[in-house]
Amino acid sequence: IEYEAFDKGVKAWVKYIRKETDNKKARIILAENWAYVDSENYEKDRRTLLENYAKVAKKYKVSLCPIGEAYALIYASEGEAAKNELYTDNRHPSVKATYLAVCCEYCIIYNESPIGVMWHPEGICDKEALHMQEIAWNTYQNLLKDKKIAKLLKK
Questions:
Q1: Is the separation of the CB atoms in 104 and 70 below 8 Å?
Q2: Contacting residues for 28 by C-beta, under 8 A, at least 6 apart
Q3: What is the pTM of this model?
Q4: What's the per-residue H, E or C state across the chain?
Q5: Rg (CA), the chain
Q6: 87, 93 Cβ separation under 8 angstroms
Q7: Using an 8 Å Cβ cutoff, are 13 and 53 in contact?
Q8: What does each C-alpha distance from 43 to 35, 69, 72, 141 come to in angstroms?
Q9: 60-83 pLDDT, tens per residue?
């Protein structure tokens, strides 16, 4: 979790988008990554990721989408086995986790709950889709209580 390289990459990405878009008021959303399942210290890595993403989101005036925090909420409330279901290997998201990320983005884009959205991908059932919607909304609501983070959700 190398901050300097991450900062440099986000800076280049934001500069490119702002230069190339016709809509100069376009909202840029930085999707927070998740700590890897095989991390030696999952909680420390999760917190470092959130801090680094929050720092660059503030620095470059972009919105933060707390996908990694949604993973962490599953881990904290349901345990390691539930967290591990979010990965296809040690790093890459499963279909369920990808849908969780979509639900997190929905919260950020619309500033409303994704609970009740009818569409979900093949590979997850209605019950799992609803659960991912609830996790995304709970994550968003929890982070709105953190004044430093809340500002970054609604840029």
A1: yes
A2: 14, 17, 18, 60, 62, 63
A3: 0.92
A4: CCHHHHHHHHHHHHHHHHHHCCCCCCCCEEECCCCCCCCCCHHHHHHHHHHHHHHHHHHCCCEEECHHHHHHHHHHHHCHHHHHCCECCCCCECHHHHHHHHHHHHHHHHCCCCCCCCCCCCCCCHHHHHHHHHHHHHHHHHHHCCHHHHHHHCC
A5: 15
A6: yes
A7: no
A8: 8, 10, 8, 20
A9: 999 999 999 999 999 999 998 998
Give per-residue burial for 73-100: e unless 16+ CB within 10 Å, then b: bbbeeeeeeebeebbeeeeebbebbbbb
Q: Which two tokens mark 82? A: 């539930």
**The two structure tokens encoding residue 142:** 């929890």
The amino acid at 59: K
